[in-house]
Recover the amino acids of this structure.
């Protein structure tokens, strides 16, 4: 009697263990490394990557790495942990060749997101799969928005100047501010009233410091138009402007990302932070990891170069746009 009962029981138990193992250990593991995990942009990328992991059933390993040493040891750890792919926004694009060599040795497929790798010759590594923004075009939209807001306010060129918080060592950042400057010039803004505030670090303090230097040099300017690499760049500049008494009535800034400026839009009183080009964090987080998943699972190679677009958000429309894009409820 006892043995009769125990046989199906044991078989059942074995089946359950098998089923659990199949469920608990999805075969595919993908790393997602970002350079500035504290920035809302990267947190949103991760959120969408998490969603892809859930939908498709792979394991996502999120890593924040602010320097080359951390990146290289993260690749070792991923390989040791059985990962087959890495989506990466590197802290320094010049690490590109080192990252490629290391990933190849570790058998990891590689997809660069946001910041394109740069080779030893200083040129973009176009053979490494990449998904990033159409930086020049998005920058041009920033410039057009600034020119339109200046016109709406009736400011004259003699009283107005442009502060471009720049970070030219990063190609995507340079393309953005170059685009903004080009479209301001195309709108008739005088070139000799466009000033660069070069950031030492690509964050709010970096832009705050750079802008303060410029404002000290140009005390007579009555109205400022501000552009930069991203929301952090414009936020830093806006804080510096406010420190000198500028308000939403005397300065206008337009950022890029649309993720790091929401708190700004939610303030009861408008600040000089007028708007931002909202990027598609979903493409950068969900689509990249999905492409990587199918590359690993089905051998389907992603396109070498994918560019995403941006849409202007302001205090007026941000709630609706964020809702439409599934970023907020
Ligand atoms: C760069 C910037 C980020 C964000 C992404 C978008 O990495 O540093 O803030 O704008 O590009 O691709």
């Amino acid at each position: 009697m006892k043995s009769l009962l125990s046989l199906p029981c044991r078989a059942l138990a074995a089946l359950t263990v098998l089923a659990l193992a199949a469920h608990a250990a999805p075969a595919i593991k993908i790393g997602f490394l970002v350079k500035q995990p504290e920035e809302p942009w990267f947190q949103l990328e991760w959120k969408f990557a998490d969603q892809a992991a859930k939908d498709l059933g792979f394991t996502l390993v999120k890593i924040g790495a602010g320097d080359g040493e951390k990146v290289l040891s993260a690749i070792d750890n991923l390989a040791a942990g059985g990962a087959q792919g890495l989506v990466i926004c590197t802290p320094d694009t010049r690490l590109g060749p080192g990252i490629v060599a290391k990933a190849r040795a570790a058998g990891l497929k590689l997809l660069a997101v946001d910041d394109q790798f740069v080779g030893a010759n200083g040129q973009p590594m176009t053979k490494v799969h990449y998904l990033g923004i159409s930086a020049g075009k998005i920058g041009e939209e920033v410039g057009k928005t600034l020119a339109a807001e200046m016109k709406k306010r009736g400011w004259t060129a003699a009283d107005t100047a442009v502060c471009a918080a720049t970070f030219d060592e990063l190609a995507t950042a340079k393309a953005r501010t170059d685009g903004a400057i080009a479209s301001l010039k195309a709108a008739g803004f005088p070139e000799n009233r466009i000033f660069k505030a070069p950031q030492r670090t690509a964050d709010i303090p970096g832009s705050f410091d750079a802008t303060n230097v410029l404002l000290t040099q140009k005390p007579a300017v009555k109205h400022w138009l501000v552009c930069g690499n991203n929301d952090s760049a414009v936020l830093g500049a806006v804080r510096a402007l406010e420190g000198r008494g500028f308000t939403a009535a005397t300065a206008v800034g337009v950022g890029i990302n649309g993720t790091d400026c929401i708190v700004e839009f939610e303030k009861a009183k408008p600040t000089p932070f007028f708007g931002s080009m909202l990027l598609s964090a979903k493409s950068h987080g969900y689509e990249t990891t999905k492409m990587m998943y199918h590359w690993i699972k089905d051998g389907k190679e992603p396109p070498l170069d994918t560019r995403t677009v941006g849409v202007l958000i302001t205090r007026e429309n941000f709630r609706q746009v964020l809702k439409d894009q599934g970023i907020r409820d």
Remarks:
- Residues 39, 41, 89, 114-115, 132-133, 172, 202, 230, 256-257, 279 surround alpha-D-galactopyranose (CB under 6 Å).
- The first helix runs from residue 2 to 24.
- The chain has eleven helices and twelve strands.
- The radius of gyration is 24 Å.
